[in-house]
Amino acid sequence: xxxxxxxxxxxxxxxxxxxxxxxxxxxxxxxxxxxxxxxxxxxxxxxxxxxxxxxxxxxxxxxxxxxxxxxxxxxxxxxxxxxxxxxxxxxxxxxxxxxxxxxxxxxxxxxxxxxxxxxxxxxxxxxxxxxxxxxxxxxxxxxxxxxxxxxxxxxxxxxxxxxxxxxxxxxxxxxxxxxxxxxxxxxxxxxxxxxxxxxxxxxxxxxxxxxxxxxxxxxxxxxxxxxxxxxxxxxxxxxxxxxxxxxxxxx
Length: 251
Hints:
Layout: E1 6-11, E2 16-28, E3 31-37, E4 53-58, E5 64-69, E6 71-75, E7 80-84, H1 92-99, E8 105-109, E9 113-118, E10 123-128, H2 133-142, E11 148-155, E12 169-176, H3 186-193, E13 201-208, H4 209-221, E14 229-235
Parallel strand pairs: 10-11, 10-13, 11-12, 13-14
Antiparallel strand pairs: 1-9, 2-3, 2-8, 3-7, 4-5, 4-8, 6-7
């Protein structure tokens, strides 16, 4: 019987929290990083690098809106939460992050749960676009030195590449393409086709839903067992606040 990874699902108590922004920095041209703090962070818990919280904002029409974001880093000792926002033209949360200042309030809820990937994994292959970079960055930072990791990440240009740090042996492939072409899987597929995938490599994918699906299908066509793949559409082209949480139950 083959040994395969397991995805352990956890549920968390959720409540809405109001924090105060402690710092705002732009780590790349398209990625502001906001760190917030406050006593309402007590009890916050995020067990997996691909957890999601809801960020609540008011849009340009004065309407309340919420969007999913990854907890990039949680400093429990100092009571601080860091969230990275991809700055794109559309979207109320992106617009809010662009204008955010120290002292402003950050409202959030969740995460409602976590999916912790466990098992005999000796290497990680992490594939994604700008929306996945917070998860990818957190994942590689949390890996131990006894595993390896390969990242394939699509960004608009070289200025949007991030300095990823890890105890794991890390190899990064940056794919440059305009943000307007983020629904085209071809650039990521081209890099993927040139990679050898060793046994016991867990492949994690997050991008626009059609891109994530195409990458997953290409891997299945190569004979990769779907138990070793977790793919999600972090966003869906043409649909506001839409996502595909997982393709894992597909054939």
